[in-house]
Amino acid sequence: MSALVEEVTSLLEPTVAAHGFDLEDLTVTGPPAHRVITVIVDSDEGGSLDALADLSRELSTRIDDAPGPEVAGLAAFTLEVTTAGVGRPLTAPRHWRRARGRKVVITLTAGGALTARVGALHDDASGVQVVERTQRGPKVRELLLTDVASARVEVEFGDPAPAELRLCGLDDEQIAARTQTGRVSRASAASDTTRSEVSKSGVADSGISDGPVVQSVEKGNK
After folding, report:
1. Which residues span the domain enclosing 50?
2. Rounded to an integer, what distance in angstroms lies between the CA atom of residue 192 and that of residue 180?
3. pTM to 2 decimals?
């Protein structure tokens, strides 16, 4: 981790947490004359455009007022605050909890892989229930997280089977919302990212999709 990334992470993480988000990743790219700071956040509720807009503005102010030598040297920068979106890897217990009902591709430490839906996370976060499709119908399987080498949420373009979602522990309201999301995803399949450009004048454009929600704030000269 570079000194700049470390300094920006330490600077922004408390503000991210104060807004109810987890800081999943932070990168700094681009030339010194104009850095691009990308902040990836997540929460149990996801992230609305309004919530990310508020967070983006406060993070931008934090960077502007930073006393640290690395951050203070940023004459111009673009700050992008984004949710992880579908397709993200599941690397912590909270990721499995938030992916409940999602289809995931899992690589096992013992070898082999499986595709299943995420069910309930164990109370002690040591494992998770997954729902597999079989010739006899969907089946619940217990899986220890220590047996998972990697796992990634898979993008779906069709409605999930309600029976599978019910085995994942979703109620009727959640199932209805999830299948509606599938219809919206198909209608907007050409775009897997929700983006809203934010400046001092406000929000320029926005949309809804199954991809990440992005807020951008630009400071200084391009």
Report:
1. 3-85+192-219
2. 16
3. 0.72
Q: Is the pLDDT of residue 14 over 80?
A: yes
98 in the same domain as 34? no
Q: How many structural domains are present in the chain? A: 2
Pairing of strands 213-219, 194-199: parallel
CB neighbourhood size of 221 (10 A)? 8
Least confident range of 24-38, 61-75, 86-100, 111-125: 61-75
**pLDDT tens per residue, range 141-189:** 999 999 999 999 998 888 899 999 999 999 999 899 888 654 444 444 4
Are 117 and 173 contained in the same domain?
Answer: yes
In 3D space, the residue among 162, 201, 114 whose CA is nearest the CA of residue 128 turns out to be 114
Q: Looking at the structure, tell me whether residues 8 and 71 fall in a common domain.
A: yes
